[in-house]
Design goal:
Layout (H helix, E strand, L loop, with lengths): L6 H18 L6 E6 L2 E7 L2 H4 L6 H13 L7 E7 L3 H9 L4 E6 L24 E4 L3 H19 L1
Amino acid sequence: MTTLNHPDEEFMREALKEANKAARKGEVPVGAVVVKDGKIIGRGHNLTEKKQSALTHAELMAISQATKKLNSWRLVDCDLYVTLEPCTMCAGAIVLSRVRNLVYGTTDPKAGAVDSTARVMENEKLNHRVKVTSGVLKEECSSVLTAFFKEMRLKAK
Protein backbone atom coordinates (compact mmCIF):
# COMPACT_ATOMS: atom_id res chain seq x y z
CA MET A 1 0.00 0.00 0.00
CA THR A 2 1.24 3.50 -0.83
CA THR A 3 1.80 6.28 1.66
CA LEU A 4 -0.69 9.11 2.19
CA ASN A 5 1.71 11.90 1.25
CA HIS A 6 0.60 12.17 -2.37
CA PRO A 7 -2.11 14.86 -2.76
CA ASP A 8 -4.14 12.75 -5.21
CA GLU A 9 -4.33 9.96 -2.64
CA GLU A 10 -5.19 12.38 0.15
CA PHE A 11 -8.12 13.86 -1.76
CA MET A 12 -9.26 10.45 -3.03
CA ARG A 13 -9.46 9.33 0.60
CA GLU A 14 -11.80 12.26 1.19
CA ALA A 15 -13.90 11.11 -1.77
CA LEU A 16 -13.93 7.62 -0.23
CA LYS A 17 -15.33 9.12 2.99
CA GLU A 18 -18.17 10.51 0.89
CA ALA A 19 -18.68 7.12 -0.77
CA ASN A 20 -18.98 5.51 2.66
CA LYS A 21 -21.63 8.10 3.63
CA ALA A 22 -23.61 7.04 0.56
CA ALA A 23 -23.28 3.35 1.48
CA ARG A 24 -24.57 4.00 5.00
CA LYS A 25 -27.65 5.61 3.40
CA GLY A 26 -28.21 2.63 1.10
CA GLU A 27 -26.98 4.54 -1.93
CA VAL A 28 -24.49 3.25 -4.48
CA PRO A 29 -21.22 4.22 -2.76
CA VAL A 30 -19.69 6.86 -4.99
CA GLY A 31 -18.08 9.95 -3.50
CA ALA A 32 -16.53 13.10 -4.91
CA VAL A 33 -14.69 16.22 -3.80
CA VAL A 34 -13.77 19.41 -5.65
CA VAL A 35 -10.42 20.95 -4.74
CA LYS A 36 -9.11 24.46 -5.39
CA ASP A 37 -5.72 25.68 -4.19
CA GLY A 38 -5.29 22.56 -2.07
CA LYS A 39 -8.60 23.01 -0.21
CA ILE A 40 -11.83 21.08 -0.58
CA ILE A 41 -14.58 23.45 -1.71
CA GLY A 42 -17.23 20.88 -2.61
CA ARG A 43 -18.23 17.44 -1.39
CA GLY A 44 -20.83 15.03 -2.60
CA HIS A 45 -22.05 11.47 -2.60
CA ASN A 46 -24.82 9.68 -4.42
CA LEU A 47 -28.32 10.58 -3.25
CA THR A 48 -30.28 9.07 -6.13
CA GLU A 49 -32.50 6.84 -3.99
CA LYS A 50 -33.12 9.38 -1.25
CA LYS A 51 -33.94 12.19 -3.67
CA GLN A 52 -35.49 9.89 -6.29
CA SER A 53 -33.57 11.80 -8.93
CA ALA A 54 -31.08 10.58 -11.50
CA LEU A 55 -29.46 14.02 -11.24
CA THR A 56 -28.06 13.53 -7.75
CA HIS A 57 -24.81 11.75 -8.57
CA ALA A 58 -21.80 12.39 -6.35
CA GLU A 59 -19.99 14.47 -8.97
CA LEU A 60 -22.95 16.76 -9.53
CA MET A 61 -23.46 17.24 -5.80
CA ALA A 62 -19.79 18.19 -5.32
CA ILE A 63 -19.79 20.48 -8.38
CA SER A 64 -22.96 22.20 -7.17
CA GLN A 65 -21.49 22.85 -3.73
CA ALA A 66 -18.24 24.17 -5.24
CA THR A 67 -20.02 26.53 -7.65
CA LYS A 68 -22.00 27.97 -4.74
CA LYS A 69 -18.82 28.44 -2.74
CA LEU A 70 -17.11 30.25 -5.64
CA ASN A 71 -20.29 32.02 -6.74
CA SER A 72 -19.49 30.95 -10.29
CA TRP A 73 -20.48 28.06 -12.53
CA ARG A 74 -16.92 27.97 -13.85
CA LEU A 75 -14.63 25.78 -11.77
CA VAL A 76 -11.46 27.11 -13.34
CA ASP A 77 -8.31 25.88 -11.58
CA CYS A 78 -10.34 23.24 -9.74
CA ASP A 79 -9.79 19.50 -9.60
CA LEU A 80 -12.45 16.84 -9.13
CA TYR A 81 -11.73 13.58 -7.31
CA VAL A 82 -14.31 10.81 -7.66
CA THR A 83 -14.18 7.19 -6.60
CA LEU A 84 -15.81 5.81 -9.77
CA GLU A 85 -15.34 6.73 -13.43
CA PRO A 86 -18.04 9.31 -14.26
CA CYS A 87 -21.07 8.47 -16.39
CA THR A 88 -21.99 10.43 -19.53
CA MET A 89 -24.09 12.95 -17.61
CA CYS A 90 -21.37 13.65 -15.07
CA ALA A 91 -18.58 13.71 -17.67
CA GLY A 92 -20.55 16.34 -19.57
CA ALA A 93 -21.04 18.41 -16.42
CA ILE A 94 -17.32 18.17 -15.64
CA VAL A 95 -16.44 19.56 -19.07
CA LEU A 96 -19.14 22.24 -18.98
CA SER A 97 -18.12 23.45 -15.53
CA ARG A 98 -14.51 23.84 -16.75
CA VAL A 99 -12.91 21.50 -14.22
CA ARG A 100 -9.13 21.46 -14.78
CA ASN A 101 -8.32 17.89 -13.68
CA LEU A 102 -10.42 14.80 -13.13
CA VAL A 103 -8.95 12.11 -10.90
CA TYR A 104 -10.95 8.92 -10.48
CA GLY A 105 -10.40 5.67 -8.65
CA THR A 106 -11.89 2.74 -10.48
CA THR A 107 -13.38 2.21 -13.91
CA ASP A 108 -17.05 1.61 -14.63
CA PRO A 109 -17.04 -0.81 -17.59
CA LYS A 110 -20.80 -0.50 -18.16
CA ALA A 111 -21.46 3.23 -17.72
CA GLY A 112 -18.11 5.01 -17.44
CA ALA A 113 -17.86 7.73 -20.07
CA VAL A 114 -14.24 8.79 -19.64
CA ASP A 115 -12.26 5.67 -20.56
CA SER A 116 -14.73 2.79 -20.74
CA THR A 117 -17.52 3.71 -23.17
CA ALA A 118 -18.21 7.16 -24.66
CA ARG A 119 -14.82 8.75 -23.89
CA VAL A 120 -16.43 12.18 -23.49
CA MET A 121 -13.23 13.94 -22.43
CA GLU A 122 -11.62 13.12 -25.79
CA ASN A 123 -14.32 14.76 -27.91
CA GLU A 124 -12.42 17.35 -29.93
CA LYS A 125 -15.58 19.33 -30.65
CA LEU A 126 -15.91 20.32 -27.00
CA ASN A 127 -14.42 23.69 -26.12
CA HIS A 128 -12.72 22.63 -22.88
CA ARG A 129 -10.13 19.95 -22.14
CA VAL A 130 -9.98 18.13 -18.84
CA LYS A 131 -6.80 16.32 -17.83
CA VAL A 132 -7.67 12.83 -16.59
CA THR A 133 -5.84 10.61 -14.10
CA SER A 134 -7.30 7.19 -13.37
CA GLY A 135 -6.55 4.38 -10.95
CA VAL A 136 -5.82 6.43 -7.82
CA LEU A 137 -6.56 4.14 -4.85
CA LYS A 138 -8.23 1.83 -7.36
CA GLU A 139 -8.46 -1.18 -5.02
CA GLU A 140 -10.02 0.81 -2.18
CA CYS A 141 -12.53 2.48 -4.50
CA SER A 142 -13.44 -0.82 -6.12
CA SER A 143 -13.77 -2.70 -2.83
CA VAL A 144 -16.31 -0.19 -1.45
CA LEU A 145 -18.54 -0.87 -4.46
CA THR A 146 -17.98 -4.64 -4.39
CA ALA A 147 -18.84 -4.87 -0.69
CA PHE A 148 -21.96 -2.75 -1.16
CA PHE A 149 -23.35 -4.85 -4.01
CA LYS A 150 -22.47 -8.09 -2.22
CA GLU A 151 -24.44 -6.90 0.80
CA MET A 152 -27.37 -5.87 -1.41
CA ARG A 153 -27.46 -9.32 -3.03
CA LEU A 154 -27.45 -10.99 0.41
CA LYS A 155 -30.35 -8.79 1.56
CA ALA A 156 -32.30 -9.69 -1.58
CA LYS A 157 -32.17 -13.43 -0.79
